[in-house]
């Protein structure tokens, strides 16, 4: 069995491949694979012509982030001890991959670890998607060291450490292949967004830890597939967040969280309407509607007595950010 497969998921990402794949080829120690989600652009031609060292898995249709990785990694099962999943819009640095794998070798109780993720556009600032490790509050709102809501910190070495976190960013993280397959991989129902947080919750439920290490640094462009402000992304985040909580909380606790989140998010709908962002308001309603109509198809992963303890430093990130004015992680 080989040590690690670096695996990039691609869908119509020819420009991202041209821009970012050279750094991965230059700075990586392990096999590089691209899983292609039935791209309709020139991605395959570019890969076969310009990146002959990259191994290719071609899928029959676009299965999204969750399904695409599930189908692709199934073809690599039992070939590698670790996977290192990285978005197609990520630039890497020297030693990025070996540092992550070393962390997992040295910490046998960790299922996954993410690097420090900085912005590819503003390289001395943290990236929105993951920063320096992710946490959850009591309503399961995610936030990061380096990013709370839309407030992003400058990297001044304040998070140059290693520690246990609640979740690792899907933009770039290393994981144990066996633990991924044993838990059934990503929830393909999610299609895209929140699936890595759900995966980490399910790992933590059975005793695994999730880590961050600043020994590895990457730069993430973000928004290569869906812009952060797009209605589709908002819809997926709303629907998938509710699905994730439903799976991972007892029924009574879930509906209490549901009511609290609905109150906050429908207040945001009013803001969207007043500012003329009608499509965003529709996305919130659609997310709630589709969760409610499909929740009976969601398999709950919780036993009656087992709830994962969230490790975030605050109970309500909204209260701390909006009311108390705490914009940075060190203020929490």
Automatic annotation (TrEMBL):
TM helices/strands, residue ranges: 254-274
Cross-referenced Pfam families: Glycos_transf_2 (PF00535)
Domain named Glycosyltransferase 2-like: residues: 6-183
Keyword annotations: Glycosyltransferase, Membrane, Transferase, Transmembrane, Transmembrane helix
Family annotation (InterPro entries): Glyco_trans_2-like, Nucleotide-diphossugar_trans
GO molecular function, one term: glycosyltransferase activity
Signal sequence coordinates: none
PANTHER family (alphabetical): GALACTOFURANOSYLTRANSFERASE GLFT2, RHAMNOSYLTRANSFERASE WBBL
Family according to the record: Belongs to the glycosyltransferase 2 family.
Listed name of the protein: Glycosyltransferase 2-like domain-containing protein
